[in-house]
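Lab notebook, design round three. We kept the backbone fixed and only want residue identities now. Task for the bench partner: fill in a sequence for the structure below.
Input structure tokens:
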């Protein structure tokens, strides 16, 4: 949209990009259905599987289990202002680290995974608290 406002692309190009984005979203939803994950769980699964070696080390099934547990734990512990209060963010970070350790997520990949999971949780938490 910013490129459109700067007259860098035409209206037709914006429409093409929106269509492509809609197709990506549809593909992600069907991928979640195939794996037996909800829309929110697939977001956490993707955050964990961002590093290809995590899939190789852990396997698809364990990552699905972790994504499911992360969603349940984060949803039940989220507060309205958790993204703005450092103490609440720290509590969520510890919660994610414990779950990752519980299932043996590779320690060298853990810090990046925690940050990505928290970013996903921040984006999704608005729906959870509404």
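Proposed sequence:
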């Amino acid at each position: 949209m910013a490129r459109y406002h700067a007259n860098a692309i035409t209206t037709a190009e914006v429409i093409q990009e929106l269509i492509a984005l809609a197709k990506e979203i549809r593909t992600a939803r069907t991928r979640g259905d195939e794996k037996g994950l909800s829309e929110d769980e697939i977001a956490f699964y993707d955050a964990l599987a961002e590093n290809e070696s995590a899939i190789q080390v852990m396997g698809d099934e364990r990552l699905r289990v972790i994504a499911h547990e992360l969603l349940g734990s984060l949803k039940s512990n989220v507060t309205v202002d958790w993204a703005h209060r450092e103490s609440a963010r720290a509590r969520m970070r510890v919660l994610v680290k414990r779950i990752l350790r519980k299932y043996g997520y590779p320690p060298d990949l853990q810090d990046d995974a925690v940050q990505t999971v928290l970013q996903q949780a921040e984006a999704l938490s608005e729906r959870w608290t509404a």
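Keep this in mind before ordering anything: Residues 17 and 54 are 31 Å apart (CA to CA).
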